[in-house]
Amino acid sequence: MYQPRWRLDTGFLILPRHTSGATTKMRWRSSAAHASTSKIHPEDLGYTSTLSAFKVSLQRLKTDYLDVMLLHKPWCWPGACSRQPEGTWKDGWRALEELHGLGQALAIGICDVDMDLLEELLQQRQKPHIIQNWMDPFHQDKLVRRKCQEEGIQYQAYSTLGAQWVYFKGYEVNPVFSNLVLQEIAQFHNRTVAQVVLNWAVHRGISIIPASKDPTRQRSNFHSFDFTLAQEQMDAIDALDGALDKKGPEL
Ligand SMILES: NC(=O)c1ccc[n+]([C@@H]2O[C@H](COP(=O)([O-])OP(=O)(O)OC[C@H]3O[C@@H](n4cnc5c(N)ncnc54)[C@H](OP(=O)(O)O)[C@@H]3O)[C@@H](O)[C@H]2O)c1
After folding, report:
1. Burial class (CB in 10 A: 0-12, 13-18, 19+), 163
2. Residue 251 Cβ contacting ligand 1 at under 6 Å
3. How far is the CA of 51 from the centre of ligand 1 (A)?
4. Considering the entire predicted model, what is its pTM?
5. pLDDT by residue (tens digit) across 172-219?
6. Is there an atom of ligand 1 within 6 Å of 163 CB?
7. Domain NADP-dependent oxidoreductase, which positions (predicted)?
8. Which atom of ligand 1 is nearest to the CA of 9?
9. CB 66 within 8 A of CB 96
10. Which domains are delineated in the chain?
């Protein structure tokens, strides 16, 4: 199973498309403890366009391979694409399969996968190494996680700290940080809520990619794994699944 410890995310939202390896003075070299990840924008879905977009990623990063290449979405969501993609996620997947076969993408995956799409992916020549989905204590995505575990696919969570409730679901305050159960557990261990949530997720076999612009929070999030949650604390967090009203559109 693919489990890098650190990830350098060069998705188009993280490194803007105009940013190049030259301007950032970045030259990617992976190691046992670090992994590079990039994504194909949905407007680049299609066999030829996915191959071209991948080539551009390599050029910008001045590397000849990436550890992980993901399809950012199986389709264009409203407002995401400036042009019609040349093809579908299946065409893009075919391109990623080929790049994987050539050793240019060591692991391949896709984001925002529901059970139907996962079943379709399992029928492809190469099943995904990684599925990256929204997962936090109130949205635990248990069916997809279980299937990934059965199939030996690494489940990677985005927005583990609850950002989707604010960005996407119309909540004014992030309900993860204000939750009393999580606050009590954090207080018990003299930790932050973020550390408790990240610890819980990793103990559930989930790969995490928390984001923070604040170096102090980045450091604190990194030090989330040197304490052990009691079984009843793990269970109490598991039980938060579905506790919030999922107002707003489905992802
Ligand atoms: N595949 C997809 O469609 C998709 C969608 C969304 C995100 N992602 C990926 O997932 C990564 C993380 O997701 P995300 O940014 O949506 O959500 P997240 O990790 O759940 O939360 C990030 C938010 O939490 C805050 N935060 C982080 N650590 C904190 C701490 N210790 N205490 C208090 N607040 C803290 C951050 O604020 P500060 O910056 O102020 O600390 C930021 O507002 C992103 O980098 C992106 O690569 C992927």
Report:
1. middle
2. no
3. 29
4. 0.90
5. 999 999 999 999 999 999 999 999 999 999 999 999 999 999 999 999
6. yes
7. 41-241
8. 47
9. no
10. 6-134 (3.20.20.100)
